[in-house]
Amino acid sequence: MFSIYQHSPCDVRGGVPCSGRELTLVTHYSEQETERERVTHRHTPCVGHKMEPTMESQIRKQKRQSKEELVDVMKGDIGFCGWVILILSAFLTAIMFPLSIWFCVKVVKEYERAVVFRLGRIISGKARGPGLMFVLPCTDTFIKVDLRVLSFAIPPQEILTKDSVTTTVDGVVYYKIDNAISSVANVSNVHLATQQLAQTTLRNILGTQSLSSILSNREEIAHNIQAILDTATHEWGVNVERVEMRDVRLPVQMQRAMAAEAEAVREARAKVVAAEGEMNASRALKEASMVMMESPAALQLRYLQTLNTIAAENNSTIVFPLPVDLFQGLLNKK
Protein backbone atom coordinates (compact mmCIF):
# COMPACT_ATOMS: atom_id res chain seq x y z
CA MET A 1 0.00 0.00 0.00
CA PHE A 2 2.84 2.37 0.73
CA SER A 3 4.45 1.82 -2.71
CA ILE A 4 1.14 2.45 -4.55
CA TYR A 5 0.58 5.84 -2.93
CA GLN A 6 4.20 6.81 -3.34
CA HIS A 7 4.30 6.36 -7.15
CA SER A 8 0.68 7.13 -8.03
CA PRO A 9 -1.21 10.07 -6.57
CA CYS A 10 -4.54 8.45 -7.37
CA ASP A 11 -6.63 6.40 -5.06
CA VAL A 12 -6.92 2.78 -6.02
CA ARG A 13 -10.63 2.81 -5.21
CA GLY A 14 -11.72 5.19 -7.98
CA GLY A 15 -8.77 7.05 -9.41
CA VAL A 16 -9.42 10.10 -7.24
CA PRO A 17 -6.25 12.02 -6.38
CA CYS A 18 -5.34 11.77 -2.74
CA SER A 19 -4.50 14.77 -0.69
CA GLY A 20 -1.33 15.06 1.30
CA ARG A 21 -3.15 14.43 4.54
CA GLU A 22 -4.78 11.26 3.21
CA LEU A 23 -1.43 10.10 1.87
CA THR A 24 0.21 10.66 5.25
CA LEU A 25 -2.57 8.82 7.11
CA VAL A 26 -2.56 5.88 4.75
CA THR A 27 1.23 5.69 4.90
CA HIS A 28 1.19 5.75 8.67
CA TYR A 29 -1.45 3.03 8.74
CA SER A 30 0.59 0.94 6.31
CA GLU A 31 3.71 1.27 8.45
CA GLN A 32 1.80 0.23 11.57
CA GLU A 33 0.25 -2.72 9.76
CA THR A 34 3.64 -3.84 8.44
CA GLU A 35 5.20 -3.57 11.89
CA ARG A 36 2.28 -5.50 13.38
CA GLU A 37 2.68 -8.26 10.81
CA ARG A 38 6.43 -8.41 11.50
CA VAL A 39 5.91 -8.69 15.24
CA THR A 40 3.16 -11.26 14.79
CA HIS A 41 5.35 -13.32 12.47
CA ARG A 42 8.25 -13.04 14.93
CA HIS A 43 6.24 -14.22 17.94
CA THR A 44 4.01 -16.79 16.24
CA PRO A 45 5.00 -20.23 17.59
CA CYS A 46 5.70 -22.91 15.10
CA VAL A 47 4.26 -26.42 15.18
CA GLY A 48 5.51 -28.42 18.16
CA HIS A 49 6.32 -25.28 20.19
CA LYS A 50 5.51 -25.18 23.86
CA MET A 51 2.24 -23.36 23.42
CA GLU A 52 -0.14 -25.97 24.76
CA PRO A 53 1.48 -26.17 28.24
CA THR A 54 1.34 -22.38 28.45
CA MET A 55 -2.36 -22.33 27.59
CA GLU A 56 -3.02 -25.14 30.03
CA SER A 57 -1.20 -23.29 32.78
CA GLN A 58 -3.22 -20.15 32.06
CA ILE A 59 -6.47 -22.13 32.12
CA ARG A 60 -5.49 -23.75 35.41
CA LYS A 61 -4.61 -20.35 36.83
CA GLN A 62 -7.98 -18.94 35.77
CA LYS A 63 -9.79 -21.90 37.28
CA ARG A 64 -7.84 -21.48 40.49
CA GLN A 65 -8.68 -17.79 40.63
CA SER A 66 -12.35 -18.51 39.94
CA LYS A 67 -12.39 -21.05 42.75
CA GLU A 68 -10.82 -18.58 45.13
CA GLU A 69 -13.44 -15.91 44.43
CA LEU A 70 -15.64 -15.45 47.48
CA VAL A 71 -19.35 -14.87 47.62
CA ASP A 72 -18.99 -11.61 49.48
CA VAL A 73 -21.13 -8.93 47.80
CA MET A 74 -24.66 -8.62 46.50
CA LYS A 75 -24.52 -9.08 42.72
CA GLY A 76 -27.33 -7.90 40.51
CA ASP A 77 -30.53 -6.09 41.36
CA ILE A 78 -33.13 -7.27 43.84
CA GLY A 79 -35.86 -6.55 41.32
CA PHE A 80 -39.04 -4.51 41.43
CA CYS A 81 -40.74 -6.74 43.99
CA GLY A 82 -37.66 -6.62 46.16
CA TRP A 83 -37.61 -2.84 46.18
CA VAL A 84 -41.32 -2.75 46.99
CA ILE A 85 -40.86 -5.09 49.93
CA LEU A 86 -37.83 -3.10 51.10
CA ILE A 87 -39.73 0.20 50.97
CA LEU A 88 -42.71 -1.27 52.82
CA SER A 89 -40.41 -2.68 55.49
CA ALA A 90 -38.69 0.66 55.96
CA PHE A 91 -42.08 2.42 56.06
CA LEU A 92 -43.43 0.07 58.74
CA THR A 93 -40.23 0.45 60.72
CA ALA A 94 -40.55 4.23 60.60
CA ILE A 95 -44.22 4.10 61.67
CA MET A 96 -43.52 1.80 64.62
CA PHE A 97 -40.32 3.61 65.52
CA PRO A 98 -40.53 3.49 69.32
CA LEU A 99 -41.07 -0.26 69.26
CA SER A 100 -39.18 -1.21 66.11
CA ILE A 101 -35.90 0.19 67.45
CA TRP A 102 -35.57 -2.88 69.67
CA PHE A 103 -35.83 -5.15 66.62
CA CYS A 104 -33.61 -3.07 64.32
CA VAL A 105 -30.56 -2.45 66.50
CA LYS A 106 -28.37 -5.47 67.22
CA VAL A 107 -25.15 -5.78 69.21
CA VAL A 108 -22.14 -7.64 67.83
CA LYS A 109 -19.44 -8.59 70.32
CA GLU A 110 -15.75 -7.86 69.88
CA TYR A 111 -14.87 -11.43 68.89
CA GLU A 112 -17.87 -11.83 66.55
CA ARG A 113 -18.80 -10.72 63.05
CA ALA A 114 -22.28 -10.61 61.52
CA VAL A 115 -23.07 -11.61 57.94
CA VAL A 116 -26.27 -9.78 56.92
CA PHE A 117 -28.63 -11.09 54.23
CA ARG A 118 -31.18 -8.76 52.66
CA LEU A 119 -33.83 -10.67 50.73
CA GLY A 120 -31.42 -13.60 50.56
CA ARG A 121 -28.41 -11.60 49.35
CA ILE A 122 -25.33 -10.51 51.24
CA ILE A 123 -25.59 -6.74 51.38
CA SER A 124 -22.00 -5.67 52.06
CA GLY A 125 -18.53 -6.66 50.98
CA LYS A 126 -17.46 -7.52 54.50
CA ALA A 127 -19.02 -8.74 57.69
CA ARG A 128 -20.36 -6.20 60.14
CA GLY A 129 -19.15 -5.62 63.66
CA PRO A 130 -18.15 -5.23 66.33
CA GLY A 131 -20.56 -2.77 67.95
CA LEU A 132 -24.09 -1.72 67.03
CA MET A 133 -25.71 -2.90 63.81
CA PHE A 134 -28.95 -1.74 62.15
CA VAL A 135 -31.13 -4.25 60.31
CA LEU A 136 -34.63 -4.16 58.88
CA PRO A 137 -36.80 -6.63 60.76
CA CYS A 138 -38.80 -7.93 57.79
CA THR A 139 -36.16 -8.20 55.06
CA ASP A 140 -32.83 -8.63 56.82
CA THR A 141 -31.45 -11.71 58.51
CA PHE A 142 -27.98 -12.18 59.92
CA ILE A 143 -25.67 -14.92 61.12
CA LYS A 144 -23.04 -14.35 63.79
CA VAL A 145 -19.62 -15.93 63.31
CA ASP A 146 -17.15 -16.48 66.16
CA LEU A 147 -13.60 -15.41 65.23
CA ARG A 148 -11.88 -16.86 68.30
CA VAL A 149 -9.54 -19.84 68.12
CA LEU A 150 -11.58 -23.02 68.37
CA SER A 151 -10.47 -26.57 68.96
CA PHE A 152 -11.91 -30.04 68.57
CA ALA A 153 -10.64 -33.51 69.31
CA ILE A 154 -10.24 -35.98 66.47
CA PRO A 155 -11.91 -39.24 67.54
CA PRO A 156 -9.63 -42.29 67.73
CA GLN A 157 -9.04 -43.53 64.21
CA GLU A 158 -8.13 -47.18 63.60
CA ILE A 159 -5.41 -47.10 60.96
CA LEU A 160 -3.54 -49.80 59.04
CA THR A 161 0.02 -48.57 58.66
CA LYS A 162 2.34 -49.12 55.73
CA ASP A 163 3.95 -52.15 57.41
CA SER A 164 0.53 -53.79 58.07
CA VAL A 165 0.22 -52.87 61.74
CA THR A 166 -3.16 -51.88 63.15
CA THR A 167 -2.99 -48.87 65.42
CA THR A 168 -5.40 -46.31 66.87
CA VAL A 169 -4.47 -42.62 66.71
CA ASP A 170 -6.30 -39.54 67.96
CA GLY A 171 -5.42 -35.85 67.91
CA VAL A 172 -6.57 -32.28 68.38
CA VAL A 173 -6.94 -29.43 65.88
CA TYR A 174 -6.82 -25.68 66.60
CA TYR A 175 -8.38 -23.37 64.02
CA LYS A 176 -10.10 -20.03 63.61
CA ILE A 177 -12.28 -18.31 61.01
CA ASP A 178 -10.56 -15.53 59.07
CA ASN A 179 -13.32 -14.73 56.57
CA ALA A 180 -16.81 -14.77 58.05
CA ILE A 181 -18.55 -14.38 54.68
CA SER A 182 -16.76 -17.38 53.16
CA SER A 183 -17.53 -19.55 56.20
CA VAL A 184 -21.24 -18.79 55.80
CA ALA A 185 -21.70 -18.60 52.02
CA ASN A 186 -19.26 -21.27 50.78
CA VAL A 187 -20.03 -24.16 53.15
CA SER A 188 -23.17 -25.23 54.98
CA ASN A 189 -21.54 -26.10 58.32
CA VAL A 190 -17.93 -24.99 58.51
CA HIS A 191 -17.19 -26.62 61.87
CA LEU A 192 -18.56 -30.04 60.93
CA ALA A 193 -16.83 -29.93 57.54
CA THR A 194 -13.49 -29.09 59.16
CA GLN A 195 -13.84 -31.93 61.66
CA GLN A 196 -14.67 -34.52 59.00
CA LEU A 197 -11.86 -33.31 56.77
CA ALA A 198 -9.40 -33.57 59.67
CA GLN A 199 -10.45 -37.18 60.31
CA THR A 200 -10.03 -38.25 56.70
CA THR A 201 -6.72 -36.39 56.35
CA LEU A 202 -5.35 -38.08 59.48
CA ARG A 203 -6.28 -41.50 58.14
CA ASN A 204 -4.83 -40.81 54.69
CA ILE A 205 -1.52 -39.44 55.95
CA LEU A 206 -0.89 -42.10 58.60
CA GLY A 207 -1.84 -44.88 56.17
CA THR A 208 1.29 -44.09 54.15
CA GLN A 209 3.62 -44.19 57.16
CA SER A 210 5.21 -47.11 58.97
CA LEU A 211 4.76 -47.68 62.70
CA SER A 212 8.30 -46.64 63.54
CA SER A 213 7.88 -43.45 61.50
CA ILE A 214 4.63 -42.60 63.29
CA LEU A 215 6.27 -43.06 66.69
CA SER A 216 9.44 -41.12 65.86
CA ASN A 217 8.22 -38.35 63.50
CA ARG A 218 5.04 -37.22 65.18
CA GLU A 219 5.82 -33.50 64.87
CA GLU A 220 6.60 -33.71 61.16
CA ILE A 221 3.45 -35.72 60.45
CA ALA A 222 1.35 -33.23 62.43
CA HIS A 223 2.87 -30.35 60.44
CA ASN A 224 2.00 -32.07 57.14
CA ILE A 225 -1.59 -32.62 58.27
CA GLN A 226 -1.83 -28.96 59.32
CA ALA A 227 -0.58 -27.77 55.91
CA ILE A 228 -3.07 -29.98 54.02
CA LEU A 229 -5.99 -28.87 56.19
CA ASP A 230 -5.04 -25.20 55.87
CA THR A 231 -4.94 -25.45 52.06
CA ALA A 232 -8.21 -27.36 51.81
CA THR A 233 -10.16 -25.07 54.15
CA HIS A 234 -8.89 -21.79 52.67
CA GLU A 235 -11.99 -21.44 50.50
CA TRP A 236 -14.13 -21.85 53.62
CA GLY A 237 -12.46 -18.90 55.34
CA VAL A 238 -10.78 -21.18 57.91
CA ASN A 239 -7.18 -20.92 59.09
CA VAL A 240 -5.83 -24.11 60.70
CA GLU A 241 -3.20 -22.98 63.17
CA ARG A 242 -2.04 -26.20 64.82
CA VAL A 243 -2.52 -29.98 64.72
CA GLU A 244 -1.29 -32.30 67.45
CA MET A 245 -1.27 -36.11 67.69
CA ARG A 246 -2.18 -36.97 71.26
CA ASP A 247 -2.01 -40.73 71.59
CA VAL A 248 -0.89 -43.73 69.53
CA ARG A 249 -2.43 -46.95 70.84
CA LEU A 250 -1.13 -50.37 69.86
CA PRO A 251 -2.76 -53.81 70.23
CA VAL A 252 -1.90 -55.80 73.36
CA GLN A 253 -0.03 -58.47 71.41
CA MET A 254 2.03 -55.82 69.65
CA GLN A 255 2.83 -54.19 72.98
CA ARG A 256 4.02 -57.52 74.40
CA ALA A 257 6.14 -58.21 71.33
CA MET A 258 7.72 -54.77 71.46
CA ALA A 259 8.32 -55.14 75.20
CA ALA A 260 10.01 -58.51 74.68
CA GLU A 261 12.16 -57.05 71.92
CA ALA A 262 13.16 -54.09 74.07
CA GLU A 263 13.93 -56.40 77.00
CA ALA A 264 16.14 -58.60 74.82
CA VAL A 265 17.99 -55.54 73.54
CA ARG A 266 18.54 -54.34 77.12
CA GLU A 267 19.82 -57.74 78.23
CA ALA A 268 22.25 -57.88 75.33
CA ARG A 269 23.53 -54.42 76.19
CA ALA A 270 23.87 -55.41 79.87
CA LYS A 271 25.95 -58.46 78.96
CA VAL A 272 28.19 -56.38 76.76
CA VAL A 273 28.65 -53.83 79.55
CA ALA A 274 29.40 -56.59 82.09
CA ALA A 275 31.98 -58.19 79.78
CA GLU A 276 33.65 -54.83 79.24
CA GLY A 277 33.72 -54.28 83.01
CA GLU A 278 35.34 -57.67 83.64
CA MET A 279 37.93 -57.00 80.99
CA ASN A 280 38.79 -53.64 82.51
CA ALA A 281 38.92 -55.22 86.00
CA SER A 282 41.29 -57.94 84.82
CA ARG A 283 43.59 -55.34 83.33
CA ALA A 284 43.56 -53.38 86.57
CA LEU A 285 44.35 -56.56 88.60
CA LYS A 286 47.20 -57.36 86.24
CA GLU A 287 48.70 -53.91 86.77
CA ALA A 288 48.23 -54.21 90.56
CA SER A 289 49.97 -57.59 90.64
CA MET A 290 52.92 -56.17 88.74
CA VAL A 291 53.19 -53.32 91.28
CA MET A 292 53.05 -55.82 94.21
CA MET A 293 55.77 -57.94 92.66
CA GLU A 294 58.07 -54.93 92.62
CA SER A 295 57.33 -54.12 96.30
CA PRO A 296 56.76 -57.18 98.62
CA ALA A 297 55.63 -54.92 101.48
CA ALA A 298 52.62 -53.83 99.41
CA LEU A 299 51.17 -57.34 99.63
CA GLN A 300 51.48 -57.30 103.44
CA LEU A 301 49.73 -53.89 103.58
CA ARG A 302 46.95 -55.17 101.36
CA TYR A 303 46.56 -58.18 103.66
CA LEU A 304 46.23 -55.96 106.73
CA GLN A 305 43.71 -53.72 104.94
CA THR A 306 41.58 -56.75 104.13
CA LEU A 307 41.64 -57.82 107.80
CA ASN A 308 40.55 -54.33 108.83
CA THR A 309 37.62 -54.43 106.42
CA ILE A 310 36.48 -57.84 107.68
CA ALA A 311 36.76 -56.78 111.34
CA ALA A 312 34.61 -53.71 110.75
CA GLU A 313 31.61 -55.85 109.83
CA ASN A 314 29.48 -57.51 112.52
CA ASN A 315 29.80 -61.14 111.52
CA SER A 316 30.87 -64.43 113.10
CA THR A 317 33.72 -65.10 110.74
CA ILE A 318 36.95 -66.15 112.47
CA VAL A 319 40.14 -65.24 110.70
CA PHE A 320 43.50 -66.71 111.60
CA PRO A 321 46.14 -64.40 110.26
CA LEU A 322 49.36 -66.07 109.23
CA PRO A 323 52.50 -64.19 108.49
CA VAL A 324 53.48 -64.25 104.87
CA ASP A 325 57.12 -64.84 105.82
CA LEU A 326 56.31 -68.43 106.80
CA PHE A 327 55.57 -69.23 103.17
CA GLN A 328 58.66 -67.46 101.93
CA GLY A 329 60.92 -70.50 102.68
CA LEU A 330 58.61 -72.88 100.85
CA LEU A 331 58.58 -70.63 97.85
CA ASN A 332 62.41 -70.45 97.84
CA LYS A 333 62.73 -74.25 97.97
CA LYS A 334 60.55 -74.63 94.95
Automatic annotation (TrEMBL):
A Pfam family of this chain: Band_7
Membrane-spanning parts: 80-103
Subcellular location: Membrane
Gene3D superfamilies: 6.10.250.2090, Band 7 domain
Protein name per UniProt: Stomatin 3
Assigned protein family: Belongs to the band 7/mec-2 family.
Source species, domain of life: Eukaryota
One Gene Ontology term, aspect cellular component: plasma membrane
Species for this entry: Pelobates cultripes (Western spadefoot toad)
Domain Band as annotated: residue spans: 103-262
Annotated keywords: Membrane, Transmembrane, Transmembrane helix
SUPFAM superfamilies: Band 7/SPFH domain (SSF117892)
